[in-house]
């Protein structure tokens, strides 16, 4: 059993390599699948070109922005070039996970549409394998980056474990910065294009979604990939890497048993379980067979992880903690994953009462649809927060009243990220497949199958966001503990007391940050969406042949407008979690501590409310389009489109981006501790 202790880093690297190699095999298999006719290839090529152009420009902007933090970290003696190089590694791997996963997704959309000619099962197989590539790259590259850089620092360079883990904070910061830009930029792009296309196409012109006459339809399909695929991949990569580093930092406080290596071994074992779990996603014949197939893969991987964690934990139980203290905490993390997935599925799945009630409220108008959606989004925060609060207390008590138990629980929860991301990435693949089926005038039977897959994808995207946000809240608690420990190590005596006006002021400022951040993101979507609306209206007016079907719209103009405006719109909100913690920390370390807690608490509630509410609005519209309450073209359908349009930036832009925002604020606080010591020490 000591194998996992003695060779934890090597084991993690091997498992990470298996994830990447299996992802490459799935990519090879996907690229061999039939691509359909020339029209399908033409449409898919336009989506590929637009997505690649956007990401290339986005990463160019980010590379320029990243120069300043690299130099600041490198030249600051208290941090140094070890952390700066880690920043580069984290940024590059986070970008790679999103870029490669997105490229596979945009090449799988037409293959999914073509497979739908043969039925649900073949189309599902293509879409799920495409999503699995993204998911496995997230955990594979995340674990490879953390374990590989740790090995380089301790093995090749001879640094101490404590020093190496400290340098890993730079890697976490690099991944986080990329994540917030990818989430914001991709989210603004996808929802501005979606809103603009829907407002003019569906509501004003009365044409179907993904109608080739709509000049914004290609931009909408591009957005699905750069937001839900590349953005989510960067988001979960960052959460996975940050959590691993944070728990390793906690472990350095307990030298006996090498507990800083325990999260690497847990991550490696979960990767093996996730690879096996992908083989259990098989569609049956029941009405809910698609969603059940996806969840079956997660259940199998969770059970296998629980079994695999036993020998791993036995190798690390000889020091500060007993076997049951560590293993019990890990089981709490797996239980939190299961419960968060189940709760989010309940609030966003079309087969459950919350979505049905929003659909029913649509029969009495647009306002009642909005009221019902807002109410369900607020209600959807209750059970997840209870689960997270219960998990925090349970893991803490199981570990003998030690916060390391919470860290183990969070790491066990994040160890399932590979399959959870796979569930999310199915969404943009199937959505694009439906668009290709519509634009290429494929048989109605194909569109029926892609619509079924897309409806499931809407739910799984919401589930993934709920999982990511819950993980972010727990990971931020670990980072906050590192901030308080770092202050003590730096000689700054602090007490975070509610009778301290600086702490209270920090709580208010931190509580405000997610709302300001979300407001700026929503404003950007509205502004860019308005630009798309104007462009679509202009093309319809300038060329009547577009609506008549005798001439083709200029798709590239809409893509270009959204690309430039989305990148501009992401800059201001992305600065909030970097600038405000530094400014507040200069005033008072206690005030900064209050800010971090305020951001965690309000950010958790706001993000869950926005993502669950937006997902419920979306599936309420899908439920009506399937025939409920009068079906397509009814008054209820018009009201549901309004709700879905409001919910789009909720669930795909502002809400998910709060996740990396919370962690960036905490990481920045840890990084500036030497600065605070020089001012307040």
Could you characterize what this model shows?
- With 681 residues, the protein is mostly helical.
- 83% of the residues lie in helices and 0% in strands.
- The protein contains 22 helices and no strands.
- It has helices at residues 3-6, 8-31, 38-75, 81-115, 120-156, 161-204, 217-251, 262-277, 289-314, 323-348, 353-361, 366-379, 382-398, 404-414, 417-439, 444-489, 501-542, 545-548, 555-587, 589-625, 635-671, 673-680.
- Helix 6 (161-204) runs antiparallel to helix 7, helix 7 (217-251) packs parallel to helix 19 (555-587) and helix 17 (501-542) packs across helix 21.
- It is globular and about 75 Å long.
- The model has no long low-confidence stretch (mean pLDDT 87).
């Amino acid at each position: 059993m000591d194998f996992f202790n003695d060779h934890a880093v090597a084991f993690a690297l091997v498992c990470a390599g298996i994830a990447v190699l299996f992802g490459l095999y799935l990519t090879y298999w996907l690229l061999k699948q039939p691509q359909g006719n020339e029209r399908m290839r033409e449409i898919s090529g336009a989506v590929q070109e637009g997505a690649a152009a956007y990401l290339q420009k986005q990463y160019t902007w980010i590379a320029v922005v990243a120069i300043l933090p690299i130099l600041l970290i490198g030249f600051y003696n208290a941090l140094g070039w070890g952390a700066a190089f880690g920043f580069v590694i984290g940024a590059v791997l986070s970008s790679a996970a999103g870029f490669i996963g997105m490229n596979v997704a945009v090449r799988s959309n037409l293959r999914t549409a073509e497979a739908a000619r043969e039925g649900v099962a073949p189309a599902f197989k293509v879409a799920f394998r495409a999503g699995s590539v993204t998911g496995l790259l997230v955990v594979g590259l995340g674990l490879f980056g953390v374990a590989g850089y740790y090995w380089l620092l301790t093995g090749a360079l001879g640094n101490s474990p404590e020093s190496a883990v400290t340098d890993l904070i730079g890697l976490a910061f690099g991944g986080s910065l990329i994540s917030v830009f990818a989430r914001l930029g991709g989210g603004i792009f996808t929802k501005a294009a979606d809103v603009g296309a829907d407002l003019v196409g569906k509501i004003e012109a009365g044409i179907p979604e993904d109608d080739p006459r709509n000049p914004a339809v290609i931009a909408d399909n591009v957005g699905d990939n750069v937001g839900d695929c590349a953005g989510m991949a960067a988001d979960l990569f960052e959460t996975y890497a940050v959590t691993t580093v944070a728990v390793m930092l906690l472990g350095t406080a307990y030298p006996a048993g090498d507990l800083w290596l325990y999260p690497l071994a847990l991550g490696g074992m979960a990767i093996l379980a996730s690879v096996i779990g992908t083989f259990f996603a098989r569609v049956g014949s029941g009405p809910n067979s698609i969603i059940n197939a996806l969840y079956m893969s997660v259940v199998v991987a969770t059970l296998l992880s629980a079994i695999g964690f036993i020998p791993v934990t036995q190798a690390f139980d000889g020091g500060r903690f007993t076997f049951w203290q560590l293993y019990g905490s890990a089981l709490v993390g797996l239980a939190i994953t299961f419960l968060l997935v189940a709760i989010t599925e309940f609030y966003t799945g079309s087969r459950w009462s919350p979505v049905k009630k929003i659909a029913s409220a649509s029969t009495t108008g647009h306002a009642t649809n909005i009221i019902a959606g807002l109410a369900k989004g607020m209600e959807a925060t209750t059970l997840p927060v209870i689960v997270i609060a219960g998990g925090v207390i349970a893991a803490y008590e199981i570990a003998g009243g030690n916060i390391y138990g919470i860290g183990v629980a969070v790491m066990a929860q994040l160890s399932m990220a590979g399959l959870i991301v796979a569930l999310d990435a199915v969404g943009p693949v199937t959505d694009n497949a439906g668009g290709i089926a519509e634009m290429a005038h494929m048989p109605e039977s194909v569109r029926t199958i892609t619509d079924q897959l897309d409806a499931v994808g809407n739910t799984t995207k919401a589930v993934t966001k709920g999982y990511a946000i819950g993980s972010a809240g727990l990971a931020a608690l670990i980072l906050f503990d590192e901030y308080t420990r770092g202050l003590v190590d730096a000689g700054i005596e602090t007490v975070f007391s509610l009778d301290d006006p600086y702490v209270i002021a920090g709580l208010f400022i931190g509580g405000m940050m997610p709302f300001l951040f979300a407001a700026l993101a929503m404003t950007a979507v509205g502004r860019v969406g308005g630009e798309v609306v104007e462009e679509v209206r202009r093309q319809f007016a300038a060329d009547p042949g577009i609506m008549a079907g005798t001439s083709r719209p200029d798709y590239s103009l809409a893509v270009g407008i959204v690309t430039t405006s989305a990148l501009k719109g992401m800059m201001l909100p992305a600065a909030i979690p970097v600038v405000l913690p530094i400014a507040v920390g200069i005033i008072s370390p206690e005030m900064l501590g209050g800010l971090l807690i305020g951001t965690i608490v309000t950010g958790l509630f706001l993000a869950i409310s926005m993502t669950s509410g937006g997902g419920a609005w979306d599936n309420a519209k899908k439920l009506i389009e399937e025939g409920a309450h009068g079906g397509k073209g009814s008054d209820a359908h018009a009201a549901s489109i309004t709700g879905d349009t409001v919910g789009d930036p909720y669930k795909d832009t502002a809400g998910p981006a709060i996740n990396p925002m919370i962690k960036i604020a905490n990481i920045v606080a840890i990084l500036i501790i030497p600065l605070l010591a020089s001012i307040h020490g």
